[in-house]
């Protein structure tokens, strides 16, 4: 007769005060009993027993077994089911990971998808994992606000959502689980189980698709069976996971029953409702409408933590239905006056549920089966924007700084902070009210954090001062503590919400330091080349007279600087002290790099104040092109921005030697290297049109003019023009070499594993590459005059490769191999290019990638007895190329006793809680990720056993 348990779950709520060293919790079982088949047993269930012990279990663990009384039950929640609640208060002895479980005979009979039958002989078991951890502060489990008993109809889509709510604001996730019976010491053992859609041959979904499906949405918690085929009882289980700051800190198992009936009825439908994102303080008024095509009477209800003053700070939400029970259509109004106390990271889930009932036109109401539909709405409450952000440059002992000020913040929540973000250059942000804060990749970085009651912050770049000539952009974001947390809790801002970013404050620092604005080639020659360098005049300051010292290095990346000029200045307006003409250069063969040092007078002595960033001349080179075209490319390594501009290309007019005609304006995007193909057509008519026919072995001369800017209103001129040298080439010069064919010597992993000590070094590995240069590709003759090969390497597939070697003459013939030495890993990808005598580079060769020879070997015995010999379980020799791993150890009953992510494992024979384990045989499972050429390497699973001896 005792066939009475349909469903249930266990929740826990901390009742000891915050900051207390006592860990007292209210533990609650919410159970659902069958009053149709087991009324006597259900009525007699006046108390239950909780088993509370370590989540790791173990043969020597002794859990506590405590009796909990029943509070008055809810006699009928529908479908011949009562809700019974059992509560006990329990003080946990210490922090740790605990399992709370409940078991009771008997489940109700004739459940179709669990076994072995008869199901009335199977006991009912659920458990909850609760982590009590001082580093997390307060923690309680989610609560499940939607009862797990609904009727599903044959052939119609069924949906259940537990209505989970976490008062701590933790993130929730969901996954299916296998219903269990009780094991030893409070553990569970899986029942024989089939997903409900697999009990009989799957039919069709409600929309006619095949086969029928059964699934659970990991994010929303929607449990959907689309659609049942056979009527009867079905039991399913799922886990509600609780996450904080990326760590799993608890989980609840709900075991529930689905009652499938033949329904001469169609389920009602709730009209779609968009998610809601509002600023704290907004009054939400959201209508909810449900319809029934059969004209049945409808009852519309809502559940969620937003209605419970014990779960969210007041004011709480309200849901009112003006004409509950109306036929065909029913509308309710969800109302919530949000406040600053409601701001949190995770959205609030509000469940809406409609249930139909027989209308007056139903011929036989006794055969009517009530059906439901439900939907969950996410409500995101974010903080108001900080306002009134402004600032002023001030003099600080460390250099130039900004003093920022703003208005008093609206939401003075204890523990809330104002985060200060900074970016270089004035920056626009796309605002998304459903994703508050500063978006990733925006260029902003957090530079400080103050209490929300503060309205000022000094930015002196952490004592290093701010750079002159840079526009600094600032924004503020309010950060809120996790609900229920206090500033004394570790990580109290984890799980808290944010505000939208404030409006931008952007202001230039005074130009107390010059910046280079021009490095332009005036004359191209091997001996008499001329380059003009210009810079800005800084703001007047103490320490006059001052002096500029100009330095030059050969090459765009040159670093061997030599002083070429010293120019005294009193910073007088109009003085020609911010220009220097550098003569006698080989501008035909070389680019040049410049920097400027600025000296001021301190105690009567010229003292270096600062130096500029370096700026190079523009370098024009030939690029690949067809025989009847000329390819050009140019670069300039400068502190200003030459991208997103229109550069100018000039070609010498052969009818007027020495006269250059502008032939094109090139829109450029990339930050450094720019290209143009000249087919002879003059594409710029403003200075006259001079078209030519480009023929092989005829010479053509070019120069380019870059156009750039600092994008800083203090730097004049705002647009900067700089010429390259003159480059004269023929169309035959641009014949592109062919890509080489690359190979990579294979690794002999067996040989390497025979000498495992080689893996104990963290560097010194070598990859040997070799390649061949073809004579022709796809019928096209390859340029035979290759003067260099360039070797490129990327650590991972898909990464941008970097140049690691250039192989040039001598020797002769040109070397076609390369040893990449000093590596910390064999893994990586390579390609090679060929370069001809004109500097034209081929397309990349084939890409060759290599993986490592991983080695990870574990012993089968260890002796943690304190004699310093084999005291820990760890791998032999040196674990090779391990990226990450997860190790789990189990006792012979299958209970997990230890876990770690330590690459060396270092298991000392104790549980994670520090309890010594008994001698015996233990089993392990190891999921390991080895370093490879792929960013997401494929996991390798290793299973085995180890003998623990004492």
UniProtKB/TrEMBL annotation:
| Top-level taxon of origin | Bacteria
Q: Which Pfam families match?
A: CHU_C (PF13585)
Mind telling me which InterPro entries this protein's record contains?
A: FN3_sf, Ig-like_fold, T9SS_type_B
Q: Which SUPFAM superfamilies match?
A: Fibronectin type III
Q: Note the NCBIfam families from the entry.
A: Bac_Flav_CTERM
Q: What is this protein called?
A: Gliding motility-associated C-terminal domain-containing protein
Originating organism: Dyadobacter fermentans (strain ATCC 700827 / DSM 18053 / CIP 107007 / KCTC 52180 / NS114)
């Amino acid at each position: 007769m005792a066939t009475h348990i349909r469903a249930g779950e266990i929740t826990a709520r901390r009742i000891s005060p915050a900051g207390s060293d006592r860990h007292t919790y209210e533990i609650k079982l919410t159970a659902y009993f069958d009053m149709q088949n087991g009324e006597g047993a259900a009525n007699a269930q006046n108390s239950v027993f909780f088993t509370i012990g370590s989540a790791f279990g173990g043969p020597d663990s002794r859990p506590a077994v405590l009796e909990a009384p029943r509070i008055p039950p809810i006699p009928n929640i529908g479908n011949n089911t009562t809700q019974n609640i059992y509560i006990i208060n329990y003080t946990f002895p210490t922090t740790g990971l605990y399992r709370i479980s409940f078991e009771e005979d008997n489940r109700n009979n004739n459940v179709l998808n669990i076994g072995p039958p008869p199901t009335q002989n199977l006991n009912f078991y659920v458990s909850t994992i609760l982590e009590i951890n001082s580093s997390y502060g307060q923690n309680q489990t989610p609560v499940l606000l939607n009862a797990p008993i609904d009727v599903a109809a044959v052939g119609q889509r069924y949906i259940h959502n537990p209505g989970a709510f976490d008062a701590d604001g933790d993130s929730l996730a969901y996954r299916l689980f296998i219903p269990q019976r009780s094991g030893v010491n409070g553990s569970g053992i899986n029942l024989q189980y089939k997903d409900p859609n697999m009990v009989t041959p799957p039919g069709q979904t409600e929309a006619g698709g095949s086969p029928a499906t059964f699934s659970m949405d990991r994010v929303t918690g929607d449990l959907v069976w689309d659609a049942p085929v056979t009527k009867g009882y079905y039991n399913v289980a799922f886990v509600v996971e609780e996450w904080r700051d990326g760590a799993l800190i608890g989980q609840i198992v709900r075991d529930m029953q689905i009652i499938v009936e033949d329904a001469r009825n169609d389920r009602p439908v709730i009209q779609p409702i968009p998610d809601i994102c509002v600023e704290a303080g907004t009054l939400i008024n959201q209508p909810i409408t449900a319809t029934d095509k059969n004209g049945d009477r409808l009852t519309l209800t809502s559940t969620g933590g937003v209605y419970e003053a014990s779960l969210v700070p007041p004011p709480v939400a309200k849901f009112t239905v003006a004409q509950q029970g109306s036929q065909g259509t029913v509308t309710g109004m969800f109302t919530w006056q949000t406040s600053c106390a409601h701001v949190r990271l995770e959205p609030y889930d509000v469940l809406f549920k409609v249930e139909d009932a027989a209308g007056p036109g139903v011929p036989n109401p006794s055969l009517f089966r009530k059906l439901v539909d439900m939907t969950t709405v996410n409500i995101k409450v974010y903080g108001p924007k900080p306002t009134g952000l402004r600032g002023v440059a001030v003099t600080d002992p460390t250099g130039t700084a900004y003093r920022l000020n703003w208005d008093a913040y609206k939401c003075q929540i204890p523990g809330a902070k104002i985060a200060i973000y900074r970016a270089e250059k004035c920056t626009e942000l796309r605002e998304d009210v459903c994703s508050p804060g500063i978006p990733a990749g925006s260029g902003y970085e957090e530079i400080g954090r103050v209490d929300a009651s503060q309205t000022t912050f000094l930015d002196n770049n952490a004592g290093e001062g701010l750079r002159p000539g840079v526009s600094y952009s600032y924004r503020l974001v309010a950060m809120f503590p996790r609900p229920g947390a206090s500033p004394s809790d570790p990580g109290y801002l984890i799980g808290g919400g944010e505000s939208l970013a404030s409006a931008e404050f952007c202001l230039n620092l005074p130009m107390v330091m010059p910046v280079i604005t021009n490095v332009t080639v005036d004359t191209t020659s091997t001996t008499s080349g001329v380059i003009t360098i210009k810079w800005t005049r800084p703001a007047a300051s103490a320490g006059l007279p001052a002096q500029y010292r100009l330095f030059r290095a050969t090459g765009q990346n040159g670093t061997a600087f030599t002083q070429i000029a010293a120019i005294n200045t009193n910073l007088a307006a109009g003085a020609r002290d911010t220009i220097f003409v550098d003569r006698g250069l080989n501008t035909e063969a070389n680019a040049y790099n410049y920097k400027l040092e600025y000296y001021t007078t301190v105690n009567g002595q010229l003292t270096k104040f600062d130096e500029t960033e370096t700026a190079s001349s523009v370098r024009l080179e030939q690029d690949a092109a067809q025989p009847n075209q000329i390819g050009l490319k140019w670069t300039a390594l400068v502190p200003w921005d030459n991208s997103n501009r229109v550069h100018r290309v000039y070609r010498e007019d052969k009818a007027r030697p020495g006269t250059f005609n502008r032939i094109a304006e090139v829109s450029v995007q990339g930050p450094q290297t720019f290209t143009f193909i000249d087919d002879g057509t003059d594409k710029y008519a403003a200075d006259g049109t001079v078209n030519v026919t480009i023929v092989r072995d005829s010479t053509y001369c070019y120069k380019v003019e870059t156009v750039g800017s600092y994008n800083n209103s203090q730097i004049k001129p705002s647009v900067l023009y700089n010429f390259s040298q003159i480059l004269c080439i023929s169309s035959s010069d641009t014949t592109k070499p062919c890509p080489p064919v690359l190979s990579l010597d294979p690794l002999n992993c067996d040989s390497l594993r025979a000498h495992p000590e080689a893996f104990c070094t963290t560097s010194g590995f070598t990859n040997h590459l070799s390649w061949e240069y073809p004579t022709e590709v796809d019928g096209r003759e390859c340029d035979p005059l290759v003067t260099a090969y360039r070797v490129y390497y990327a650590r991972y597939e898909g990464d941008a490769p970097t140049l690691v070697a250039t192989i040039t003459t001598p020797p002769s013939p040109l070397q076609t191999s390369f040893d990449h030495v000093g590596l910390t890993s064999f893994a990586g990808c390579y390609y090679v290019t060929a370069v001809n005598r004109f500097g034209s580079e081929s397309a990349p060769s084939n890409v060759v990638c290599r993986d490592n020879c991983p080695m990870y070997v574990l012993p089968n015995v260890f002796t943690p007895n304190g004699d310093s010999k084999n005291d820990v379980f760890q791998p032999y020799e040196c674990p090779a190329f391990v990226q990450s791993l997860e190790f789990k150890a189990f006792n012979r009953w299958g209970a997990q006793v230890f876990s770690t992510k330590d690459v060396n494992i270092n298991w000392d024979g104790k549980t994670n809680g520090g309890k010594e384990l008994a001698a015996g045989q233990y089993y392990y499972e190891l999921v390991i990720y080895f370093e490879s050429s792929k960013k997401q390497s494929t996991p390798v699973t290793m299973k085995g056993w180890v003998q623990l001896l004492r």
